[in-house]
């Protein structure tokens, strides 16, 4: 199991390389950043290469969900990019998640640590009502997240993506070394946008989140550097 260093991860939800570079160039320090579907599908591996050259840690957020063999092959390729964390959907089943880890192990260059592999339980844009009526899971949201987390650990993954509201129980049931990566983070004054289950950085720290993912609160701030530093202090309790 990997040692978890708590960190604020900045979601680089930009359209292209130029927008990303303009944002990154404002910072003099090394960051932990998230590259999601929009940016990776627009720019491909070159955006990962650029961020690595700038000495930033990278969470490549592609949420793989396919048959086990396809996910294994995809993870072998992603491992060669040298990112620090990747993810899948826990709904893909235990065999698929096991295949993801196998692919990462096979694809990671000798002498390097494989990327952390975490699984999405339920998106923070999903309410319990939506889950029950549209995904047809006839269970409570907390129970569904916990069960998916248990499947994730059984499959040999390192942790999950979940709401900070669920982290306390996850750590109590599955251990402090089981990673919780929590999006849906907003400062008290921010709009919640399309998120349903949101908390502040201070509340996420109190609940035990290991990583928080913050996007618009930082990327759309009038002064992104100052805002990032404030959120970092709030989350780490500095």
Q: What's a quick, concise take on this entry?
A:
The protein has 238 residues and is an alpha/beta fold. The protein has eleven helices and eight strands.
Give the SSE map.
Layout: E1 7-11, H1 17-24, E2 32-35, H2 37-43, H3 45-53, E3 57-64, H4 68-79, E4 85-89, H5 94-107, E5 116-120, H6 128-134, H7 141-154, E6 159-161, H8 167-174, E7 179-182, H9 201-207, E8 211-214, H10 216-219, H11 224-236
Parallel strand pairs: 1-2, 1-8, 2-3, 3-4, 4-5, 5-6, 6-7, 7-8
Helix pairs in contact: 4-5, 7-8, 9-11
What does this structure look like?
There is one protein chain. The chain is α/β, with parallel strands linked by helices and 238 residues long. It is 43% helix and 16% strand. The chain has 11 helices and 8 strands. It has helices spanning 17-24, 37-43, 45-53, 68-79, 94-107, 128-134, 141-154, 167-174, 201-207, 216-219, 224-236; strands at residues 7-11, 32-35, 57-64, 85-89, 116-120, 159-161, 179-182, 211-214. β6, α8 (167-174) and β7 form a beta-alpha-beta unit. The protein is globular, with a radius of gyration of 17 Å.
Helix-strand category? alpha/beta
Strand order of the largest sheet: 1-2-3-4-5-6-7-8
- Estimate the mean pLDDT confidence: 93
Low-confidence stretches: none
Please summarize the sheet with the most strands.
8 strands, parallel, barrel
Count of DSSP helices? 11
Compute the separation of the termini in Å.
Answer: 26 Å
State the total count of DSSP E strands. Answer: 8
Query: What percentage of residues falls in helices of 4 or more residues?
Result: 40-55%
Give the ordered list of helices and strands.
EHEHHEHEHEHHEHEHEHH
How much of the polypeptide forms β-strand, as a percent range?
15-25%
The Cα radius of gyration reads 17 Å
What is the approximate shape? globular
């Amino acid at each position: 199991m990997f040692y978890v260093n708590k960190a604020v991860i900045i979601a680089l939800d930009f359209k292209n390389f130029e927008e990303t570079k303009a944002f990154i160039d404002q910072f003099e320090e090394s960051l932990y950043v998230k590259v999601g579907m929009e940016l990776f599908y627009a720019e491909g591996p070159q955006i990962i290469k650029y961020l690595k050259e700038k000495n930033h840690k990278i969470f490549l957020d592609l949420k793989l969900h396919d048959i086990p063999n396809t996910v294994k092959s995809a993870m072998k390729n992603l491992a060669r990019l040298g990112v620090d964390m990747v993810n899948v959907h826990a709904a893909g089943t235990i065999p698929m998640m096991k295949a993801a880890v196998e692919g990462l192990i096979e694809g990671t260059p000798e002498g390097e640590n494989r990327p952390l592999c975490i699984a999405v339980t339920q998106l923070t844009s999903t309410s319990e009502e939506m889950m029950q009526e549209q995904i047809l899971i006839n269970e409570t949201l907390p129970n569904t997240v916990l069960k998916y987390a248990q499947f994730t650990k059984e499959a040999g993954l390192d942790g999950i993506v979940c709401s900070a509201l669920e982290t306390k129980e996850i750590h109590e049931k599955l251990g402090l070394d089981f990673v919780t990566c929590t999006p849906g983070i907003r400062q008290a004054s921010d709009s919640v946008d399309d998120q349903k289950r949101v908390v502040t950085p201070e509340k996420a720290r109190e609940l035990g989140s290991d990583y928080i993912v913050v996007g618009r609160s930082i990327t759309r701030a009038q002064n992104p550097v100052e805002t990032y530093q404030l959120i970092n202090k709030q989350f780490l309790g500095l």
